[in-house]
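If you are new to this repository, start here. Below is one unmodified record pulled from the training split, so you can see the exact layout before writing a loader.
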Amino acid sequence: MICKKCGAEIQKGYVYCSACGSEVQLVPDYNLLDEDVLGGILRQEAKDREQTARQKRKRSQNSRKKSISTAYVRIGVVVLLFCVASVAVLLVAKVWENQKNSYGYQYQKAMECFLEKEYDEAESYCKAALSLAPGDAKATGTLLDIYVDTKREEEAAALLEERISEDASNRTYVERLVALYDKMEAYDKILALCDAVKSSRMMDLFEAYLVEQPRFSNISGTYHKPLEVELFYETEYDVFYTTDGQDPTEHGTPYRGRILLKEEGTTTFLAVARNQKGIYSRPVEASYTIRYEAPELPEVTPAGGTYDAPQKITVSVPQDCTAYYTWDGSDPSEASFRYTGPLEMQPGNQVLSVILVNASGLKSGVYRVNYIYMP
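And here is the target side for that same chain:
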């Protein structure tokens, strides 16, 4: 190596010139060719470094673009997930709202509250269920149970009456209403319900409440003699009657035995029977007219005339009459001879006079017949 100051050769490994003492300035020992080569190398290295730098910048730019793209993607994913989550929340809320407004939800809540004896809430849910499914049997049954448990029989009866008015063939509703009326002792309503239902397959529900009517011994009509009226009924019943047109359930006279009608005129009976529950039968009516009439003229055989042989004289006497006679032409009376059997024809010219007297004491006209018997 050559000292840059004095040009003396500096020994290898020294850092000061042994000739002038100057600090060694390292001057490479090269020629122009070496310098060109070195310059080329340096330029190539510079190009390489520039290329490398451009590649790095490009990679950096690409990396930044990728990072930005990734960031956008991530943001998009987050936004999408947020939207999906929002929609899901709305859907869940909608489904929940729809479920809360469904019959199934309302009825389930009604049953839960009923079992917990939370009757006010149970009633509210039941009514909501019925608003969604009008007339539903399950919700109706639960609401009825609520009314019964809370001793609201009138409301329970009103609900059943409404349901039966819509469907009179529903045996369950009819049976429950009969039981309710029985508990309320509203027996007149049971009979009215029986009339309204009019279904033979449900008549067994009313058997304990249908009291058989009493029966009259005689049919209604006109009678010409005193009449004894008798009433027949079940032994465990009580019977009441009126003859003035009033309701026998309220104004009736207890029946104790046969009733004799002997005064002329019309008597109309209204009678009812009452069982041990205090339930009355439907009224039964019978009307009797007593009109007394005099008997017809009696029938006498044989006819009047002349006879040469003895004859038996007979008088036809109706069942409720008695015959009286005379032979001297006078008018017979109840003090005259009483006819009891065939009479012997008297010899000579005789006049037989006969009358009939009925059970009412009324007399027929006098029947006269002339017999001439010449033996």
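Two things worth knowing about this chain: The chain has eight helices and 17 strands. The first helix runs from residue 32 to 100.
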